Structure formats: C-alpha cells, structure tokens
Amino acid sequence: MQARKRLGFVLAIFLLLIGACARSASGDEGGVTHPALAERAQPPDGLATDVRTGARDEQSAPPSIIKSIDGAEMVLVPASEFIMGAEDQHFDQRPMHTRYLDAFYLDRFEVTNAQYKRFVDETRHPVPYYDANWARSYNWQNGTYPSGKALFPVVLVTWEDAQAYAQWSGKRLPTEAEWEKAARGPDGLLFPWGNEYDVTRMNTWEAGPGETAPVGSYPRGTSPYGAMDMAGNVWEWTADWLERYPGNEDDSTRYGTKYKVVRGSSWGNVIKYARTSNRHWAEPNTLSILTGFRCALSLDR
Ligand SMILES: [Ca+2]
After folding, report:
1. Which of 150, 153, 184 is nearest to 266 (CA)?
2. Which residues of the chain have pLDDT under 50?
3. First vs last Cα of the chain: how many Å apart?
4. What is the distance between the alpha carbons of residues 263 and 241, in angstroms, rounded to a whole number?
C-alpha cells in the first residue's frame, strides 16, 4: 500500500484542539440519505441522467441539475468568463484575471461517507484510515464509516483516492479554475454567498461545531450556481498542481508538480482561508481530517 502521510498544514496546536473535540453523538446509522439525494432512481449506465428540473421548454439547453451514478446531484455551471484570483491576498492568487470556461457540472455537495462506501464496497479500495489519535473519530472500522456519519463528507482520502473515486463514478476532479468559478460566480465574489464576512454561513473554526458537519448544512452559504459548502466544512482536492498564474512573477518553491491544490477551507481553519480565491496545497499522498473532495463532469460526456 502506498505511503501515506499527515497533512502538512495541520498545526500541532490544532491537533491538540481536535483531540479535545467531542465525537458527534448523532444517533443516525448508515443508510441515511440526504434529503436532496433521496427518492431518486439510479441511472442504468455510467452516464449522468437528465432529471430536467430546469430548462423544461428549451430542449437544446442542458438541464440545470442532473444526477450522476454515485447518487450525487450536480449543478450546471454555464459557459462564461469569470474573475479568478485576487490582488489583496496571498501572492499566489495574483494577478486577478479573467478566464473563460466551457459549461460543466459540479457535485452540489462534498462526497459523503455513504457515497464513498459504495465505491469501497464495489472496488475494495482501502478505507479512510490513519493510525493516530487525531484521526480516531474519523477512521473507518470494519469496512465502514463512523456510526451516524453517513451524510458527513468523507475525509482521510488522498488525492489518489479522490481520483480513483472520480473515475469509478464516471466523473473527474474539477480543475482549480472550475472550482473557483463554481464558488464565486462570474463576477468575482469574495465568498460563495457574496462579499460580506459572515461566519454563520459556513463551517469554519470561528462558529462551526469544531468537526465536520453533514453536507449541505449551511444553505445560506450556497454559491451562485447552487453548490454548497464551497466555503468551509472540508478542503477539496482539485485536479491541478500548484502552479503560478499567468503573469505572476513571485518566486515560490511550492510551484511545480509537487503539490496539488486544495480549495475552500475547512471546519478547522479560520475564515480567511475560505475566500473563494484562496489557494492551498498538499502533496497528493496526504491524508487529513480536514480534506475531502467533490467531482465534476464535462457536458460532452
Ligand atoms: Ca468544502
């Protein structure tokens, strides 16, 4: 089995805090389905199914919401230019610039433990686990996730794990640009809901429960395209290496093909990391209780 290592940006002080966090006492057991995912039949093959919740009268227009084979609801991010990066944040976000992206779909929610279990059961992929105290309440045992955590985001997954899941589900990891556009819309919002600082709209360290929350717990934090938890809950792996933006001339030893970009901040980080333009990084074999993922799908699939 591949070597796995702890996430570099989990600070020692923070790990102590984690150890003090009480494990959720939710009484729900596995098999619970998120309301937004419930009562929807599985499509028969590996392609996304058009459930036509929108654009009913425009046969040529792609549906605004689809369901993919892992049961995930996906929202449409239409083709357009959008503003990427920021001038007043960490230098790796500079320069703020305009990019064009074709339309794509993005999972509305972070991938849940229940969804990941289907993948594990069907492929015999190793379960999320790290032998350390700080990982204890998130570790899977006997082939399944912690009791009551079906609808919580899966964590303790490497980039390779996320990539394997995406391939299994007929999808892919979003590019960093796709992730940012889905989070901030075309006009460069600072947060998914707008430009105002509001710790009540996401699961970050300031006002969150001190652990992961069920996906979709913060509807007031929804992005312009309907994606949820794009700020907070768990960091999300993207497809891309941490590279400099075009026109950026700052030196950084992190640029290159050593670190994958993770986005969106987590329950264990403060709000400044939840800015839609914020870039963070981790080696692809990193395991963290702060990091999960969601998947994307191109329209031409
Ligand atoms: Ca997130």
Report:
1. 153
2. 1-3, 6-58
3. 32
4. 12
112 in Cβ contact with 217 (< 8 Å): no
> How many angstroms does the Cα of residue 56 sit away from the middle of ligand 1?
30
- Distance, in Å, from the CA atom of 198 to the CA atom of 200, rounded to the nearest integer, reads 5
User: 8 C-alpha vs ligand 1 centroid, how far in Å?
Assistant: 18
Could you report the per-residue pLDDT of 131-159, keeping only the tens digit for each? 999 999 999 999 999 999 999 999 999 99
> Which residues fall inside 5 Å of ion ligand 1, going by CB?
229, 233, 264
The Å distance, Cα 162 to ligand 1 centre, comes to 14
* Residue listed under structure tokens 């993919």: 68
CATH code at 32-111+170-298: 3.90.1580.10
Crossing angle of helices 159-168 and 113-123, rounded to 10°? 80
Contact 75, 105 (CB under 8 A): yes
Ligand 1 centroid to 25 CA: how many Å? 22
* DSSP label of 114: H
Q: 75 with 54: CB under 8 angstroms?
A: no
CA of 154 to the centre of ligand 1 (A): 11
Q: Which residues have CB under 8 Å from 287's CB, separation 6+?
A: 4, 5, 6, 7, 128, 130, 135, 156, 157, 158
List pLDDT tens digits, range 218-245: 999 999 999 999 999 999 999 999 999 9
Ligand 1: centre distance to CA 67 (Å): 20
Rounded to the nearest whole angstrom, what is the distance from the C-alpha of residue 86 to the centroid of ligand 1? 19
What is the rounded distance in angstroms from the CA atom of residue 147 to the CA atom of residue 142? 11
